[in-house]
Structures are given as structure tokens and as C-alpha cells.
Amino acid sequence: MTSDLEPLLRSLRVWDTELPAFDPGAAPAEPLPLFVEWFAAAVAAGQPEPHTPSLATTDAEGRADVRTVMLHGADAADGWTFASHAGSAKGRQLAARPYAALGFYWPVQGRQVRVRGPVRTAPAAVAQADLHARSTGALAAALTGHQSETLASLDELERESRAAWDRAQREPDAPVPSWTAYALQPDEVEFFQGDARRRHVRLKYSRTENGWLKELLWP
Ligand SMILES: Cc1cc2nc3c(=O)[nH]c(=O)nc-3n(C[C@H](O)[C@H](O)[C@H](O)COP(=O)(O)O)c2cc1C
After folding, report:
1. Which residues, in sequence order, are CB contacts of 62 under 8 Å at separation 6+?
2. What pLDDT does 16 receive?
3. More exposed terminus of the chain, fewer Cβ within 10 Å: N or C?
4. Mean of the per-residue pLDDT values for the chain?
5. Cofactor(s) for this protein (predicted)?
């Protein structure tokens, strides 16, 4: 079957630019410093929105789901952190199956990072403090609420959002009880460096009882 999409798809290329080198032999013993290094390099290279990974979860029946979220942090204590509403689809999925994956793609450098592991819910105060340190828009969006529920009309969204913006401006510390911070503590992190000749370099870190195991993977 042909469609208008196919010629467009065939006209597009990946890894068509100068890509950085990656020497896995010089990679650190743990994935976090390498993630921080690659993240800073993505920002320096002008990669738009490098902090917006895909978050994959599964529902109670084991069916996969995925969406974009904002990365709130990555450190040794908490792992990779993000936030959302507990009552959203992802919030319910994480409550039923507290395990997730984050996928970062930074095409400016042909780099991909995959992070997988168990997810825990941070104390409520952490989520509220994180939210109140963000923009008025972020608070207004959180206050609007009802995430993933069916919306009757855009007029309704307009009304609720207007009220939420007013409140966020009046009350910058307004609590949003459903807003939840999640922390993914990885047991696997994979770094992929694209290569124009398709000799992509993949380095996978796996958590073991004796620290992190590093392995190369066939591309
Ligand atoms: C760039 C970008 C960043 C986003 N960041 C978040 C976020 O940090 N938290 C969130 O709940 N939704 C975020 N969203 C919206 C989600 O992708 C998604 O639409 C929403 O969370 C509902 O997902 P769910 O029904 O699977 O729970 C973001 C969307 C985009 C495009």
C-alpha cells in the first residue's frame, strides 16, 4: 500500500551530520556521571528540549503506554525524577506497576539514552516544593487538574484554566494534592551513539550486587 507518507519518509535521513565520538573504554564506572556529561553536551550543542524524555509504563494488564514528561532531576540518591498527577493514566499505571522506562533522544548528536527501573513515589512535601519552585504556568497547569479525564469541550478547559491561572498568580503556594513526584532508580541505563556508517556504539550499564556491570551491545 502506498501513501503520501512514504516518499516523505524515504526522503528523510538520520545521522546525516557530524556526530561526536564516544569511547566506551573511557566511560565512568557508573551511568549517572555519563548521563550528566551527555546531558550538558546536548544543551551545549543546541539540542532543543533535551529534558523531555518519553516515559513508558504498563497498565495492570501489562499493556504498554508512553508519553512525554519533563525531567526534574537525576542524582545518586533519588535516581531520575519526574512529576505528574496521581490520578492520570500514568499515575494509575505506576501505582499498579511501579516500574518504568525513560527514553531520551538527542538527534543533534545522534544520541539516545534509555533508563529502566523501579519507580517510587516521593514524599508529598517534595512534590509540592518542586511544583512551587516552578513557573506560574506549571502551577496553573497542575491546578487545572483532571489530567487524562474526558473533557467535554474546549470552553470548559478555557474556564477551568483561567480560574487556575488566577489562583496560581494570587496564591503561588497553592497546594495540588494530586501532584506527585516520582523517582526512577535505574537497574539498567543504555547509552547509544549513532554513527553515519551505522557502527553505532551501545554501552549498557546493569546494576549488580557488586556495582555496575558495563557491556557493549551489537547495534
Ligand atoms: C514537552 C512535554 C512535556 C510534558 N511534561 C509533562 C510532565 O512533566 N508531567 C505530566 O504529567 N505531563 C507532561 N506532559 C503531558 C504528557 O505527555 C501527557 O499528555 C499527560 O501527562 C497525560 O498522560 P497520561 O494520560 O499517560 O497520564 C508533557 C508533554 C509534553 C509534550
Report:
1. 97
2. 82
3. N
4. 95
5. FMN
